[in-house]
Amino acid sequence: MTAQTPMNQRVARHAETMGRHGEGERWAEVLLEDGRNRAVWISGPPGTPPDPHIHPDFNEFWVALDGRTQWQIGQYEPVLSEWGDIIMAPAGFAHDIQPKEGVQAIRFGITHPDSNHDIKGIAPCRLIPVDEGQTNPNLIHTKLKSLVERNGTSSNWVEVAVNDNRNYATYTHELAGTTSETTSHPDENRWWVVLQGRVEWSISGEGVSSAGPGDVVFLEKGKSYSISTVGDEPSIRITIAGPAS
């Protein structure tokens, strides 16, 4: 049996997780459980059969990583994700997930700790454009490429992608050499998915934890820390925090 990444470790590294599994394998590893969420790294090679289902009482969302995956959410037309995109299935919306390209199509799913797949989805009677009636945040498909095109690469910026009763998720783009002020969050665990560049977390009493593309960083509540973008290129990360007040 393949060893799994320990849950809630400081840095879950993309290369190490992928290296434990063969090409073309189907697998899932639970990386985080923080009370609000269960976060699962999922591999679905092309041809993996879908399992359309519904969660009636909570939103579920995913960060798309390796490969390309097709998502059909509720009655919305299918969309094809790329690295760094966020896809959301609002509560009550069936979701049909089909890996399409790459030896392994990897997604990082953020779901409720008590979730199950017991309520199977019903095929929609018609499909409507995915951007019809949708506003940011909580889009069905938030495209990283579109955010970069809109905001550019020559300055620091933040965009909210998810804002619901469990999570407040933002994209942060930072230029090399940027360092945040030291802060802490006494009432919530916080975690990040690095999408681009090299990022360092300077954590009180621990030193520095470094992460790169695809790595997931977890910080339990009460820890003081600052974040720096190091190296020669800008960084992009997704922050998953508690609900905004």
Automatic annotation (TrEMBL):
SUPFAM superfamilies for the chain: RmlC-like cupins
Disordered: annotated segments: 1-24
Basic and acidic residues: compositionally biased ranges: 13-24
Any one Pfam family match given in the protein's UniProt record, by short name: Cupin_2
This protein's UniProt keywords: Metal-binding
InterPro entries listed in its UniProt record: Cupin_2, GPI/OXD, RmlC-like_jellyroll, RmlC_Cupin_sf
UniProt entry tagged with the keyword Metal-binding: yes
Protein origin, superkingdom: Bacteria
Domain Cupin type-2: 177-235
Name this polypeptide is given: Cupin domain-containing protein
Organism: Candidatus Lucifugimonas marina
